[in-house]
């Protein structure tokens, strides 16, 4: 089954599997029971599920928030290995992994960002045991010893702060137990997938318990770099975690956690969707550019083996103290993240260019809160949160041995002469500009960058619940956040041609000739004097310099795609942002009956400014305006130009994106009866100044969408028609809109539907447990995940520029997963599992080929995987 369509009239397939679609996901209510016993528990009704979405323990039905819950038992049974798989059972959530093992984005209700740039904070906050993971790379280790995962839909800034403007993923692991127990598991599947995990827990003393858990996964690649004979999209990761639970008294407890995880993989396969006009030149150089006919053969041709390593480690201490009706909680955490990758960015066997990044993140967080549990009508929760983070990054683009030959051919050089090593186009340019022969595109590095960002934030938050009559709870909440960032960028562009503006070079040359002055002596003062004394002559020189028919060098400007960038801070730009915001929540919840709860809420959200930590970090238009064709000499007055800071070919863009401000209106109803339960939420959500981060073919543009909104609903139901059988069904419908986005990289998108957001997302499951008199059980599960056919994006800056955005790529998702587990009464379990059983094929996303105008590259989804496992619980 393949879903890859171009054109706006792509086919619409809505294939629901017979039997599974009628009722079915392990969604909020579909989670298996939260019992901590030594065996996989049989499903129970959803009103047994305890959640902490409001930072208080409540049943799922009592929680007046649109929250989806997946239990640890479902995660084990469905072989959900990491958060990338979580989206198959949570239709409001999407997770994408793209360029590297660490470049993932979490999206809730169509909102999310933060991939591929550590300066862009995520809009969906990820918390593990109450500790904020500030970058998605810090939340990608294999899931183990999970109690439950809560996905909170919509803005959650009131209780979760500045990084929850679109929602929250809260992962809760199992605490140490004072009864000895544990489990070990070994799984083997196709692609030689070996997965091992284990955990052990028990008492050390009467008031101290411990737990240890670990995972190891090694899998051959699902793709192959054919010319190098190396697997790609493999799995090679492990994680370990240790915990102590100390309970000196019935009122005081301490939970200490330390963890370490490592990823070392060859990621991620890119295929050619459209081979553009540069493909023949690449093939002449041995690039072996493929066509879309072979896209899902999962083969690639590269000149190096990509490297991806992620080291993620840290620890936290949570202290809880109860004094009568008051409870006090403190969570202190420190974490470090090291992320390194090196990849072939032209994605061909030709040796054109490689990129390398070495990133480090150090984060300290402290949360303290007080909550009440009075018998009276008023209760409260109040707290504070401190966040301190430092990010460093060293990155570079390496010139390949064939980059000059490739660009020579594209510049009009005779391919036979280029391949024979005879002088061609760039040799003439070097002679005309006075550059050393064989210098253009022959430096070891094309660019080199150093970034640093320091972020300090403080939040004060709280909620007050007022119950004027039995069953009616009125809630008001607030959050005040003050966020400060300091950032620095230094960058070098080594290519000599990129350091020359062709308009300015001609102007300087003509003035030097007219005044019999060496060009090296013609500076701003001499140019100003000549212009003042000879305005007509200067105008003629400027006109000729900007006319492509006269100044033939202008035809080479596309090859200056990595010019020098202005370092920051500088005399004009201080490299600082300072944001503060007051957000709030108003909600009314009413228990209509013991079985039915309803609520209505209004909430606002906030995400602080994000920084463009990339080589495309450019001054704002208010600080600099370039002249015609990037000329500095002809540029109008601006602070940077007037201060003499402008570097050749400098243009304006973005250093940072302004804060996001979200609001949501939501009404919901939750019902629970013996054998059946449901949750429904209807919402109208808006984010002003949504931070859009888009790849442009040679770099990344960070911009604010004026306003993006989404209307929709989320519904899930759990039905237990007979003992042992649970059917679940969950659906999310989204109707998003760019209310205003004039400055997107593909033009004015105001009034258009944002790409990549399916109108319908459905998750269903059927779980049947057959139990014998001996206590042994056979548990069978089938689930199905569907995303309706939708545009992947709103167009590509390079590919669609010449097409008027008339060719848009689409995708549809139809995933079937299944598992069977035989759980014997002696603790032994045997299982079979499969994911994407029908081998559905679709594009994850597409992007402009790097420095290959007209080429479109894309990422394929994961193929069918399956295997068996043995588990022992004790």
CATH architecture: Beta Barrel
- Number of β-strand runs: 41
Give the helix level as a range of percent. Answer: under 10%
Q: What do we call the CATH homologous superfamily?
A: TonB-dependent receptor, beta-barrel domain
Examine the coordinates and then state which fold CATH places here, giving the name of the CATH topology: Maltoporin, Chain A
CATH first level = Mainly Beta
What spatial form do the alpha-carbon principal axes imply?
Answer: globular
Fraction in beta strands? over 45%
Give a description of the structure.
The protein has 874 residues and is mainly beta. The protein has a single domain, classed as Beta Barrel (Maltoporin, Chain A). 9% of the residues lie in helices and 49% in strands. The chain has eleven helices and 41 strands. It has a 22-stranded antiparallel barrel. A hairpin with a 4-residue loop joins strand 32 and strand 33. Helix 8 packs antiparallel against helix 10 and helix 9 packs across helix 10. The longest helix is centred in the middle third of the chain and has 14 residues. The protein is globular.
Features:
41 strands, disordered N terminus, single chain, Maltoporin, Chain A, 9% helix, 11 helices, iron, 874 residues, mainly beta, 22-stranded antiparallel beta barrel, five-stranded mixed β-sheet
Please give the structural blueprint.
Layout: E1 2-3, E2 5-6, E3 50-51, E4 58-59, E5 67-71, H1 72-77, H2 83-86, E6 93-97, E7 104-108, E8 124-128, E9 131-133, E10 146-153, H3 157-160, E11 167-173, E12 181-189, E13 193-205, E14 208-219, E15 223-225, E16 230-232, E17 235-249, E18 252-265, E19 271-274, H4 279-284, E20 299-300, E21 307-323, E22 326-344, E23 353-372, E24 378-399, H5 403-410, H6 415-420, H7 425-433, E25 445-469, E26 472-493, H8 502-515, H9 524-533, H10 535-545, E27 576-593, E28 596-607, E29 610-611, H11 639-642, E30 656-657, E31 660-673, E32 676-695, E33 700-722, E34 725-740, E35 760-771, E36 777-791, E37 809-823, E38 828-835, E39 841-848, E40 856-860, E41 865-873
Parallel strand pairs: 1-39, 8-11, 15-20
Antiparallel strand pairs: 2-37, 3-4, 5-10, 6-7, 8-9, 10-11, 12-13, 12-41, 13-14, 14-17, 15-16, 17-18, 18-21, 19-40, 21-22, 22-23, 23-24, 24-25, 25-26, 26-27, 27-28, 28-31, 29-30, 31-32, 32-33, 33-34, 34-35, 35-36, 36-37, 37-38, 38-41, 39-40
């Amino acid at each position: 089954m393949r879903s890859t369509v171009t054109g706006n009239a792509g086919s619409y397939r809505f294939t629901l599997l017979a039997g599974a679609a009628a009722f079915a996901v392990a969604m909020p209510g579909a989670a298996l029971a939260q019992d901590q016993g030594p065996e996989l528990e049989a499903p129970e009704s959803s009103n047994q599920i305890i959640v902490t979405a409001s930072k208080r323990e409540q049943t799922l039905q009592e929680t007046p928030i649109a929250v989806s819950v997946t239990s640890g038992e479902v995660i084990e049974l469905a072989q959900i290995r990491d958060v990338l798989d979580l989206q198959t059972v949570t239709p409001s959530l999407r997770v994408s992994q793209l360029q590297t093992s660490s470049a993932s984005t979490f999206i809730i209700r169509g909102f999310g960002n933060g991939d591929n740039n550590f300066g862009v904070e995520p809009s969906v906050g990820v918390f593990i045991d109450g500790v904020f993971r500030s970058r998605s790379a810090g939340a990608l280790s294999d899931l183990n010893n999970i109690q439950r995962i809560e996905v909170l839909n919509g803005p959650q800034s009131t209780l979760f702060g500045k990084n929850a403007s679109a929602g929250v993923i809260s992962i809760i692991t199992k605490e140490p137990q004072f009864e000895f127990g544990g489990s070990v598991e070994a799984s083997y599947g196709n692609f030689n997938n070996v997965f091992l995990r284990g955990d052990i827990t028990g008492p050390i003393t009467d008031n101290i318990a411990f737990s240890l858990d670990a995972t190891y996964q090694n899998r051959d690649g699902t793709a192959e770099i054919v010319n190098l004979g190396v697997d790609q999209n493999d799995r090679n990761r492990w994680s370990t975690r240790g915990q102590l639970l100390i309970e000196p008294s019935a009122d005081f407890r301490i939970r200490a956690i330390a963890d370490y995880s490592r990823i070392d993989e060859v990621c991620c396969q890119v295929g050619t969707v459209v081979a553009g006009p540069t493909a023949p030149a690449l093939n002449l150089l041995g690039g072996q550019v493929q066509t879309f006919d072979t896209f899902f053969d999962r083969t690639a041709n590269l000149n190096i083996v990509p490297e991806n390593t992620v080291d993620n480690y840290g620890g936290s201490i949570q202290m809880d103290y109860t004094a009568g009706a008051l409870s006090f909680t403190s969570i202190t955490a420190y974490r470090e993240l090291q992320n390194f990758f090196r990849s072939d960015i032209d994605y061909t066997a030709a040796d054109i260019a490689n990129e390398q990044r070495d990133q480090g993140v150090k984060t300290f967080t402290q949360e303290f809160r007080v909550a009440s549990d009075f018998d009276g009508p008023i209760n409260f929760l109040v707290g504070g949160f401190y966040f301190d983070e430092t990010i460093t990054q060293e990155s570079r683009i390496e010139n390949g041995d064939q980059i000059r030959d490739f660009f020579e051919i594209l510049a009009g050089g005779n391919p036979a002469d280029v391949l024979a090593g005879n002088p061609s186009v760039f040799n003439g340019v070097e002679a005309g500009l006075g550059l050393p022969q064989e210098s253009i595109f022959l430096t070891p590095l094309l660019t080199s960058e150093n970034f640093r960002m320091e972020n300090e934030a403080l939040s004060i938050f709280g909620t007050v619940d007022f119950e004027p009559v039995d069953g009616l709870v009125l809630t008001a909440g607030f959050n005040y956040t003050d966020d400060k960032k300091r950032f620095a960028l230094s960058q070098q562009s080594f290519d000599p041609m990129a350091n020359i503006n062709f308009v300015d070079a001609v102007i300087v040359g003509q003035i030097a000739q007219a005044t019999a002055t060496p060009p090296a002596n013609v500076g701003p003062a001499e140019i100003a004097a000549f212009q003042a004394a000879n305005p007509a002559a200067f105008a003629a020189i400027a006109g000729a310099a900007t006319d492509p028919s006269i100044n033939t060098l202008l035809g080479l400007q596309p090859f200056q795609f990595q010019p020098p960038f202005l370092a920051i801070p500088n005399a004009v730009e201080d490299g600082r942002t300072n944001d503060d915001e007051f957000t709030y929540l108003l909600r009314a919840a009413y228990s209509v009956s013991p079985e039915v709860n309803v609520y209505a809420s209004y909430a606002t959200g906030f995400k602080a400014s994000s920084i463009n930590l990339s080589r495309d970090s450019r001054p704002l238009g208010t600080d600099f305006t370039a002249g015609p064709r990037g000329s500095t000499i002809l540029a109008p007055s601006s602070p940077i130009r007037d201060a003499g800071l402008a570097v050749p070919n400098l243009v304006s863009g973005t250093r940072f994106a302004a804060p996001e401000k979200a609001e949501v209106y939501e009404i919901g109803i939750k019902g629970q009866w013996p054998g059946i339960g449901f949750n429904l939420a209807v919402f109208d959500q808006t984010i002003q100044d949504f931070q859009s981060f888009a790849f442009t073919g040679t770099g990344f543009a960070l911009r604010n969408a004026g306003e993006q909104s989404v209307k929709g609903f989320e519904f899930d139901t759990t039905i237990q028609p007979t003992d042992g059988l649970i059917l679940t069904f969950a659906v999310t419908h989204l109707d998003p809109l760019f209310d205003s986005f004039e400055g997107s990289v593909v033009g004015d998108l105001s009034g258009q539907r944002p790409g990549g957001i399916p109108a319908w997302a459905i998750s269903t499951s059927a779980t049947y447990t057959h139990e014998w008199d001996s206590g042994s059980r056979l548990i069978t599960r089938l689930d199905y995940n569907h995303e309706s056919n939708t545009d992947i994006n709103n167009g590509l800056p390079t590919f669609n520029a010449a097409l008027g955005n008339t060719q848009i790529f689409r995708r549809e998702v139809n995933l079937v997963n299944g598992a069977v587990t035989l759980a014997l009464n002696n603790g032994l379990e045997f299982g079979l599992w499969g994911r994407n059983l029908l081998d559905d094929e679709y594009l994850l996303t597409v992007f402009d080929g790097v420095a290959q105008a007209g080429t479109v590259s894309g990422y394929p989804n994961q193929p069918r995987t399956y295997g068996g496992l043995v588990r022992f619980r004790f």
